[in-house]
Amino acid sequence: MSPGRSLLLGVDVSTTATKALLVDDRGAVVGVASASYELSTPRPLWAEQDPELWWKATRDSIAEVIASTGVDHRAVEAIGLTGQMHGLVLLDESGSVLRPAILWNDQRAAAQCDEIRERFGLEELVRITGNDAFPGFTAPKLLWVRDHEPEIYRRVRQVLLPKDYIRFRLTGEHATDRAGAGGTLLLDLATRDWSRELLEALKIPAEWLPPTHEGTAITGRLSSGAAELTGLTLGTPVVGGAGDQAAQAVGVGAVVPGVVALTLGTSGVVFAACERPLSEPAGRLHAFPHALPDTWHVMGVMLSAGGSLRWHRDTLAPGVEYDSLFGEAKRVEPGSEGLFFLPYLSGERTPHADPFARGAFVGLTLKHDRPHLTRAVLEGVAFGLRDNLALMRKVGLDSVGQVRISGGGARSPVWRRILANVLGIDLVSVETSEGAALGAALLAGVGGGFWPSVEAACAAAVRLGKTTRTDPNSAAAYDPIYRRFREHYPAMQPLFRAG
Ligand code: ADP
Q1: pLDDT band at 2 (very low <50, low <70, confident <90, very high)
Q2: Is 157 in the pocket of ligand 1 (CB under 6 A)?
Q3: 282 - beta bridge partners?
Q4: CATH for 7-241, among 1.25.40.10, 3.30.420.40, 3.30.1020.10, 3.30.470.20?
Q5: Residue 471 annotated to the active site
Q6: Which of 105, 302, 322, 434 is the best mutation target for the ligand 1 pocket, counting ligand atoms within 8 Å of the beta carbon and taking the most?
Q7: Residue 4 has pLDDT above 80, yes or no
Q8: What is the rounded CA–CA span in Å between residue 11 and residue 368?
């Protein structure tokens, strides 16, 4: 690291750890550090965290990344924030935290979701916010506090998202970014600001919510107290940043309409940038503002993508390396000789918003052996991802120019080839391990004036890898097989529901 080079800091307040990542002004990652914490489950299906844990982990991870890279902390010229979406942080008049934060994966607010849906009707709710009401979203959780902890509710003066609590500790400002605000269920998707209509109907005071900003806008500057605690320079700008999904998309360069980011991790995420707000009338896709102005995104989530393969390995091939499973699967013909796998091991979110959906092998015969089962799992996940993309096209995503793929499963050339053929689209691998924190640092770089636009920041920083090309013959062979796959879920749905 040459002396005097400017640095940008991305801070990712995730569910398991807070990460601090440094990028230089040419887009190269200089270092990353993280400090982890626990999640508490005071009752089944609840998930809470003390915001103080995030603040301590923010300070620790910043200190560690500075120490481990040996950079001068005064070189950090802008800070970007990202983190777990939807979490509810409540502050009182004095800025003190009123109760532990209720997180995105907390399921307690189902009745409040029903209340919101009944009040507006699903179609109207999706028209305003782009989304259906999920218990994980912020608004239903706020109504849960109203219903179950009225003493606390009376004292609420400010509602923040997790990363915005860190912003508050860094700058003293109440502010949020529009991509993250989309996950509250209180944002008007088209205007990218709080929905008066929703706030009035739910009787949530507008002054409880912080001003919204674009991801690259400066929302405040490092306070003297935070400068002293972190060693960073007083007055360093802190930009809006983004919720983790949008920041992750910035980290892989999915910022231009037509570029789709496909993450093949434990879950599978299909994320498409678009130039107008798109939403799915039944709310089966998530629709939020993107981290850059005049851009939105739609997103589908498959709950068990890489997770299906891991289950398969752990259950049917314990101790076998993933690479040898892929080697076996490669020798099986597309379609696994009539064997199908339904990847709904944890229920499903997209395209079937169905907690009762279940996994299944369909079409087993005596000729099928483990390689067939493995290939069927890889194909079943690929078909599920194609379902996601098909739903996005149905609601108006007209151009899919490039698909950028990342996540653990994307390391396998065999799985990538199956996916490229099932989707009928070439896949470009993206080398990223800390995508969301990188995205936040890039947004900071644009806000701090180091790059003229998010596209320019991505062009400098995002490292593209191999392209996996579609083979037209295999792609054509998969079309009728995919249509067969599509028939299985509706046929089995009543059985799943019956248990
Ligand atoms: P997470 O989403 O939990 O961060 P990752 O992005 O690391 O997880 O992806 C984990 C998934 O990657 C595993 O469930 C498995 O399906 C897949 N995987 C793990 N190792 C390999 C490998 N060597 N080759 C291909 N896929 C792998």
Answers
A1: very low
A2: no
A3: none
A4: 3.30.420.40
A5: no
A6: 322
A7: no
A8: 48
My answer on whether omega of the bond before 150 falls inside 30° of 0, hence cis, is no
- Using a 6 Å cutoff on CB, does residue 61 contact ligand 1? no
- Assign 1 a pLDDT band (cuts: 50, 70, 90): very low
Q: What is the mean pLDDT of the chain?
A: 96
**What is the location of CATH 3.30.420.40 in the chain?**
7-241, 253-499
Find all residues with CB under 8 Å of 257, minimum gap 6, and list them: 273, 274, 275, 295, 399
Distance CA 354, CA 493 (A): 9
Segment 353-361 mean pLDDT: 93
Cα angle for residues 107, 285, 258 (degrees, 5° grid): 140
- Those residues whose C-beta lies under 8 Å from the C-beta of residue 410, and which sit 6 or more positions away, are 262, 264, 416, 427, 429
407 in contact with ligand 1, CB cutoff 6 A: yes
pTM to 2 decimals? Answer: 0.93
Segment 45-88, tens digit of pLDDT = 899 999 999 999 999 999 999 999 999 999 999 999 999 999 99
**Nearest C-alpha neighbor of 33 from the set 22, 48, 45, 47:** 22
Q: Per-residue pLDDT tens for 181-240?
A: 999 999 999 999 999 999 999 999 999 999 999 999 999 999 999 999 999 999 999 999
Percent of the chain with pLDDT over 90: 94
Residue ranges of the alpha helices (H) in 295-408? 306-316, 322-330, 370-394
> Rounded distance, CA 280 to CA 99, Å?
34
pLDDT digits (tens, 9 = 90+) for 369-392: 999 999 999 999 999 999 999 999
Write down the catalytic residue from 244, 314, 369, 471.
244
* CB of 313 sitting under 6 A from ligand 1: no
User: Which residue, judged by its Cα, is nearest atom 12 of ligand 1?
Assistant: 408
Task: Fill in the amino acid letter for 397.
Answer: L
The whole-angstrom separation of Cα 268 and Cα 249 is 14
Look at residue 428 and tell me whether its pLDDT is greater than 60: yes
Distance separating alpha carbons of residues 225 and 208, to the nearest angstrom:
24
Question: CA-CA distance, 405 to 208, in Å (whole number)?
Answer: 39
Residue 270 pLDDT class (50, 70, 90 cuts): very high
Residues in the chain: 499
Contact criterion met (CB below 8 Å) for 20 and 437:
yes
Locate 165 and state its tokens. 């609590």
CATH architecture of 253-499: 2-Layer Sandwich (3.30)
- Report the C-alpha gap between 106 and 112 in whole angstroms: 13
d(CA 331, CA 414): 10
State the DSSP H helix or E strand holding residue 427, giving kind and residue range, or none if neither: strand 427-430
